[in-house]
Amino acid sequence: MPDDVVAKLQELAEKETVPIAKTLYATYKRNQELAAELNRPACQDTGVLQYFVKCGTKFPLIDDLEVLLKEATVIATVNSPLRHNSVETFDEYNTGKNVGKGTPTVYWEIVPNCDTCEIDTYMAGGGCTLPGHAMVLMPGDGYEGVTKFVLERMTSYGPNACPPFLVGVGVATSVDTAAVLSKKALMRPLGSHNPNANAAKMEKLLEDGINSIGLGPQGFTGNSSVLGVHIENTARHPSTIGVAVNVGCWNHRRGHIKFDKDLNYTITSHKGVEL
Amino acid sequence: MAKVVLHTPIKDADLENIKVGDIIYLTGHITTCRDVAHRRVIEEGRKLPVDVRNGAILHAGPIVRPIAGQKDKFEMVSVGPTTSMRMEKFEAEFIKETGVKLIVGKGGMADKTCKACQEHKAIFCVFPAGCAVIAATTVEEIEDAQWRDLGMPETLWKSRVKEFGPLIVSIDVHGNNLAEMNRAEFIKKRDKAYETIAPQVGFIK
After folding, report:
1. Cys-Cys crosslink for B77: which of A38, A185, A230, B63, Cβ 3.0 to 4.6 Å?
2. pLDDT tens, residue by residue, B20-37
3. Size of interface A-B (CB pairs under 8 A)
4. ipTM, 2 decimals?
């Protein structure tokens, strides 16, 4: 679990006053300690792995990267071990290796004239994947409609999605553009803000608003509901507002690494971790 | 307050005084049982190959690994509950069919399950999801593994556990459903939150 999530959970636990929520935060903490001590996955649902790659065109391993990530997934599946989470669709069988057609997911962002490579690795379980939703609103619905869309998802699917969770919102043109942004929003470090003042304001309003619902850990009520709300946006078609929401559970397993051209690396998400 | 520990086999009388919101623990046997296993029992009419009468099931797909040097023995590495609502479609009939007394999962279950719990004297509890190492360390031994053709997450792993928990009682035998009660409150607060936010996001002018 990244350092920012550990710190945020500690902060929420200290502020908590609901007895059942306090018990749950204490259980969360003990689980993370045991997981580290026994070197086991903290949550059994280790997800279908997703990699967000921001790669320079001059990075020496650019051609091999996708194959390497697939191999790394297989190795991690055996060594960690990770749960087997890749079921081939239509043929409906579990490959047993965590890789399959199109999995793990690799999202590419190519940076011209650059020789470094950054990778966010993300493991999301099924429970926090379920609230994911995208739709296209009419401009008349406005950002009020965006608000309503996000809030409704919080009460219908939120309690089951392992709160306090991180909420990613994408605002763009269509379901595909909004959906990718909403997942990308989950890769941002906690406490970061959208550079646009209105978007940042909406992040804060939604964070306070969803917290006021008081989902608490596991949806058994509490003083807070979220680790944060992150909005990512692009320009939109004048006739549409594409909106999507994605949720990352309290056990938010994200790692960020940056390589230079000689493969020296910096891990920004986990202090003191070495490969 | 003394720790409440249920033991399998579970008798109806054991559940009588347990109420929603209580925290309990389980000692005895619990078998992982999720989507396809429920479907096989209810839709395909197959008999569950593990007897869970007066016993417990766990909506979970664990990570297990073979124990080196022992033939066909497995260690529980990481196990925690999955979304129980996926089993809502089958659970009432499953309770009736199998005689299970304790269902452990995540999130909430709905009216049909709640009614079946009242009628057949069973309860639904939530184990804190994401705390899979705590759960795994309460497993003393995996005693049986059936329907292995379903792969690691869906196999019926029958475990002997000691003080498995904390389990938060979400549906009791008296017709109470904590998740549904909470949800009604959440919706009221959500509507209030919308009224607060909406006037502040009129960015299209």
Report:
1. B63
2. 999 999 999 999 999 999
3. 188
4. 0.93
